[in-house]
Amino acid sequence: MSRLDSSAVGGRRVCALLAAGSAALHAVMAGDARSAVTTAVVIAMALACLYCARELWTAGSPRVWCVVAVMNLGMVAVHLSMPGHHHGQVVSTTPAATTSPLMAVATSLAIVEAAVAAVVLWVQTRSRASNLALAARSRGAI
Fold first, then answer.
1. Least C-beta-crowded within 10 Å: which of 26, 65, 84, 94?
2. TM spans, by residue (predicted)?
3. What does the alpha-carbon distance between residue 98 and residue 120 come to, in Å, rounded to a whole number?
4. SS3 label, residue 80
5. How far is CA 80 from CA 32, 34, 83, 117, in A?
6. Radius of gyration over alpha carbons of the chain, in Å?
7. What is the rounded distance in angstroms from the CA atom of residue 136 to the CA atom of residue 141?
8. Is 126 exposed, middle or buried (0-12, 13-18, 19+ CB in 10 A)?
9. Which residue from 58, 49, 48 is spatially nearest to 12, judged by alpha carbons?
10. Left if phi > 0, otherwise alpha if psi is -120 to 50, otherwise beta: which for 36?
11. Does pTM surpass 0.90?
12. Digit-coded pLDDT (tens) for 37-75
């Protein structure tokens, strides 16, 4: 395995550990939920994080990175669209509803994961486009 391949695998596995950390955060949040529906939704999110962690650990395909990016952006959108929502805590009607520290950590982690996934997708697609252009040029197609 080349040095570049081993660093790509290492980076992918670090991201897998971040996704597992997100799953753990959701598990903690599920413990704070006050309704069965909220608990079920938070557990489903934790399972989705574990799915992404497993996929990142075993493969680094563009599909996996796209799923990671979309899942994390979706979580950020949901969390930021409900400023008073804190996974089971009472929603505040005051204009300046504060976010719990756990929610802030989870949202920040999701933003980091989405940014990393976007960079990886950009690098993968740029290198693939370059390889296709070189192959076409060598065949005389360009």
1. 94
2. 40-57, 64-82, 102-123
3. 33
4. helix
5. 19, 20, 6, 20
6. 19
7. 5
8. exposed
9. 58
10. alpha
11. no
12. 888 988 998 999 999 999 999 988 889 999 999 999 998
